[in-house]
Structure formats: C-alpha cells, structure tokens
Amino acid sequence: MTEEQLREAQAKAIRMKDVSAELFPIFEAVEKNYLETLMRSDIEDGLLREKVYHRVNALRDVRRAMEMVIAQGSGAAAIIAKLSRPNTGRKVKA
To answer: CA 53, CA 51: separation in Å to the nearest integer?
Structure first.
C-alpha cells in the first residue's frame, strides 16, 4: 500500500467510526426486534422464521463490514505513525 492509500484508509475509518456511532445502536434495536419476533413466532411458521434469520444475518454482515473498515483504518494509522517516526539508526535483528 502506498502512503496515500494508507491515509485514505485512515480517513475512511474515521468517517466510518462517526457513522457507526449513529448506526450501531439502531442496528442493535432492529436486531432485538427481529429476535423478539423470532421468539414470539409459531415454531411451525418456518417461512417467517427463515426470513427473520436471514435479516438478522444480513444486519450482522453489514456491521461486520463496517467494523472491518474501521480495523483496516486503525492498522493504516499505525503504519503511518511508524513511517512518520524518525529513524533512530538502530538495526533490527532478523
């Protein structure tokens, strides 16, 4: 990755953190609603239960994707910080 790509990943992560702070509580409320629907549903209503199952998984997938962007940006920030440090002249043993 180039330094420009690292900085873009870092900036994207910062934006995603802001968005996720707003969306994650909403995701939690929606997921809770879905799970309550699942618990209240008739065990014989397989179609409804399957739909709820898929919706919960889709919601979790979106959350996971957002968390991955944040994690990648944090990693990029660490690399940028390491690259920005002045060279102390010490050699690393392999």
So the answer is: 5
Amino acid residing at 74: S
Kind and range of the H or E run holding 10: helix 3-40
Whether pTM > 0.85 for this model: the answer is no
Q: What is the DSSP string of 13-79?
A: HHHHHHHHHHHHHHHHHHHHHHHHHHHHS-TT-HHHHHHHHHHHHHHHHHHHHHHHHHHHHHHHHHH
As a whole number, mean pLDDT of residues 68-79 equals: 94
